[in-house]
């Protein structure tokens, strides 16, 4: 039972007792005063009316008390609600601003002051246009008031000005408050400062569109800008040039000096390139060591070529990193809009084909896109695709070319050369697919496979009693630069059980001289395994004799280009003699390749070249086709 019930019960009981006492007392008094029952009846009636009158008075008093009681409760609840609202209003992190129907500010909360920098007194009685940033036009405010008029509410992003003058974004909701008569009594605006969110959005957008290392636009932003530039060029009937720049042998820097130095170098290169171009030119880093330059208003190949040369020349001076000077070159591919391509994607692909051409032509230069390049590029893509399949479907074969001892003319070794038995095209020359395999990275897989086959084959020959000193395999520059080459060779030797001294690894002179320090380290590691090392195509690179002397190499292979002129071409004859003398002076064996005539073999024998290989001795053939007894007479 509540307090109210108990007090009501008490009142009712009191009324009951008083009524009974009153009735008994009046009845007793009337019977004692009056003998006549008619008088007694009249007074009882008067008493009844008097009691009804008193009761009505009591009911009135009770009603007043009750309504007072309820009235007090309601007021208490209202007060509580108001106190809570005021606390929320003041504690909320959202700014709150209340205006009267005329738009004059009548109230602001604490968060409002924190966000805007204004004190309460500075804004009360003023209009919210005090905070206008000037970023929004009249349309914006018209729409806002139209929404308030029709829906009684407006929400949206608005840029306002703090007291400090700083312009900032806020998310704001404005509500119209109406009184009991439906008249506008107030406008209440609740807003939050969204600068931090905007900053994060900007940061995310920046990260998504820029390369974090150099701060240059990335591929996404570059493609976007290229699309825009092309659209604008089309409209204004102007030309554009896209230059794709690739650093030559950058991988060697990463591999030999570490990624930290590689990163520093990329930053320095980006800095140097930045200094070359006027503001209208977009320079981007597309990934790895690949940069792109988009030049608007450049329609002539000659103009683009000048820029390409400027890029190449910019790297002629060494780059100064923390404590060392580094040299790096670049190759550039150029494609022009609208002459070469009509879309940004095509322009990039064409520039890539031209870049490939520049690299194939010996690097450190530029090449312009031509239509034939597309056909070649297409062909390259197709071959790369098919080559992957060929590896899986085991379409590759290993052929062996005999190597003869020139003194005895006997077959003493073989060189393993890969062949592709294409299901439709027949035997495809490695000269066609090896460069593509090198570019796509498939070469490492191919070389590893050839090495495994050659070692197994050599073991089989040895088990069959064939007296063969070595089997030579080619190691591409790509595989040679990899640290895992050592593990790979060790694994193949272990699996095949071949004596390491019977395996000869041929590395081209250019692969060695690309980065002699890395080559030196790699060669020493390989020598620890006990394998033999030969420098292939010797004479075509620019070997430093000092460096050559330090290399743990057992053989120099004279490039077939010099052998071709023997014995009549004096220059070739002189070069060959020098190479032989050089090899011998460094205690290396020397082997000539590309011997097609007896006279060439005779010249080489006469000048103390130890070994020879070429069509005159025998072409590369399948393992079972080798003629072990062939020893053609040289003299
Ligand atoms: N990384 C790898 N490269 C490989 C592998 N197999 C081959 N190659 C390289 O491909 C290029 C072309 O090779 P190929 O068509 O096999 O040509 C070799 C010989 O057939 C050819 N040769 C040999 N003797 C003569 C000759 O008397 N005349 C003549 N015109 N050509 C001849 O020379 C090529 C051998 O060259 P080399 O390797 O320098 O000893 C070629 O660059 C191969 O290196 C492979 O598995 N991996």
Automatic annotation (TrEMBL):
Residues passing through the membrane, by range: 12-34, 46-66
Residue ranges annotated for the GGDEF domain, each copy included: 238-371
Keyword Cytoplasm: no
Keyword hit for Transmembrane: yes
Domain PAC: 154-206
Domain of life: Bacteria
Keyword terms of this UniProt record: Membrane, Transmembrane, Transmembrane helix
Identification of the protein by name: GGDEF domain-containing protein
Taxonomic placement: Bacteria, Pseudomonadati, Pseudomonadota, Gammaproteobacteria, Pseudomonadales
